[in-house]
Structure formats: structure tokens, C-alpha cells
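Q: Give me the 3D complex with 1,3-dihydroxyacetonephosphate.
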Amino acid sequence: MVSYKEIGLVNTREMFAKAIKGGYAIPAFNFNNMEQLQAIIKASAETKSPVILQVSKGARNYANQTLLRYMAQGAVEYAKELGWENPQIVLHLDHGDSFELCKSCVDFGFSSVMIDASSLPYEENIALTRRVVEYAHQFDVTVEAELGVLAGVEDEVASEESHYTKPEEVIDFATRTGCDSLAISIGTSHGAYKFKPEQCTRDPKTGRLVPPPLAFDVLDAIMEKLPGFPIVLHGSSSVPQEYVDIINANGGKLPDAVGIPEEQLRKAAKSAVCKINIDSDSRLAFTAAVRKVLADKPAEFDPRKYCGVARDWMEELYRHKIINVLGSDGKA
Ligand code: G3H
Ligand code: 13P
Ligand code: ZN
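A: Here is the predicted complex, encoded as C-alpha cells.
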């Protein structure tokens, strides 16, 4: 058993309370490799933004959970080395799908876990979430739960259509589970194709897809039922078209990739939405940089030359999100 406190991590409780009060959101960035982690920590340290490092099932399969956990421990020390005296860093399990997995993360030094039982029937979601909360809270580890289903692929749980969170269920769910934050479904989804072209209109000048707005009425109704309760938005990448264009111009094929417009995320960040999950945008920045460097310099074969550029692009992306979208700069 390792306590996250011993390795300098924090849980989300105080962070979320401050974010709701201050009208900003905490970035939750997924990481799978060293370059991503370096970029996240550099951007967070330089902007003094609290940050949530997320480890998904895919990341655990790719990079090994033990290695990722020690990388997060190293990240705390790296942040201090960068001059961030009191780093506010959370190590969070993204989309945990079983009690056993959540328990193993709690025991191993994670400061926050998500139990995603949103695809289960309501009562089963409550029972599993409650069990995780009872275990995690003994060690002051905070728990995110999910109610409602996002369209697209939630790790291995495929869902063709989204089912918005039902505001009439949230009080019962939050009370009976004791969860610390609630991920909701209001129209976001995972990946780089958040809407089908037929769900969008097209900008007549650019020909780009313009997605439909998020269901802010559902968010408002949830906030009315649970005043001041921390709300989480998954699937919140914006799919910057400049990256998509670079990828497509350098041998890639991402037709009609579309995300959540940043002004909608800015609006959400000012509300009780206090955690915004971003993964795909970082993947796009990384891929765009690598494709461009390799296309421009076909003789290059030192991975540091293209992964280093990818790291710079991701760092710029993270800084942009922190300062211009979430407003979490200067809050840690
Ligand atoms: O929730 C989805 C995240 O983007 C993680 O995806 O399981 O492919 O790492 P992943
Ligand atoms: P994106 O695919 O929009 O980046 O969402 C990531 C996410 O929700 C991780 O849990
Ligand atoms: Zn997610």
C-alpha cells in the first residue's frame, strides 16, 4: 500500500471546490508516454495550473501501469525542479471498469479514480460506484462516477448514441453513491469524430463542419438539482483544424474530423464543470508534428528530432487550453 500523499500528489476535493468557486476548470490530460508527460508538466508548472494526469485502460495496456505510476511520481519532482514549489498534481484512473482495478490503483498511489459503470443499469451503477467510494474514501482518494452515456467508444464499451444524463436522477445518484464528482453526458463524445457530418452544418466560407451546440439546458438542470457539486466533462477535445490540415497534407487521412468548439468549453468551465478531459487534441498535435517533420526531412531517423517537436507542439497546446479555454492558470 502506497499513499499518494507520500509521493506529493493531491486528491481532487479542494481543487474542485476552488475551481467551482473561481469559475474555471481543471485540465485532465491523458498521458501514455514520456513526451506527453513532460509537455503536461512543463505547461502546468509554467502557468501554475493545477493538473490531473489521467491513466486510461489503453494507456495501461500500452505503457504498463507500474511505469506510468512511477512516471507520475517523477513528474512531481520534475515540477519542483521547474520551480513549482507546491505542485498540485492529481494521478487519476480514467474510466475504471471494475472494483478490483479501482482498488489496485488506490493501493498503488493514485489520488483519484473514476469508476465508469455508466453502461450498467442504474441500480448496478449505484452499487458498484458505492463500493468503490467506500474503499477509496478510507484512504482519502476521491472518486468520479458517470451517469448517462456518451456517444462513441468509451474505452471498450461501444455506444452508438448518447443518452444525456437525466437531471431527475442526479440527486439520488450522488447521495446514494457518495461520489465526489459526476461525469455527465450533454453531447460530448470521445475521439476525433464527435459528430457525423449529417449532425452538423457547414460554414459556407470555409466548408468546415459546424457541430451542434452542447445541451446546456441539461447542464443547467443538473446544476439546479446539485448546487455546487463538481461536474466533469469527458470527450472535450476541440479537434483543432490546423492539426487536421497538417496531418492530411502530410500523408494522413482524417476526413471530417470535428470536435467541441472552444467557446462552448469556455462557457462550461465557468459553471460547475470543474474537470475537462482532453486526450485526442494531444494525439493530433503529436501526429501532426511527427508527420510534418518526417515529410520535411525524409532523412531524419533520430526519434528525438521528431518526438521533440511533437513535445513542443503538445506543450503549446496544453498551455493554450490552460490559459485560453479552462482559465486554470495561476490557480496553483
Ligand atoms: O476516454 C478515452 C481516452 O481518450 C483514453 O483512450 O483508452 O485509447 O487510451 P484510450
Ligand atoms: P477526447 O477524446 O475528446 O480527448 O476525450 C478524452 C476523455 O474524455 C478521456 O477520458
Ligand atoms: Zn473519457
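A quick observation: Residues 30, 56-59, 94-95, 155, 190, 279 surround glyceraldehyde-3-phosphate (ligand 1) (CB under 6 Å).
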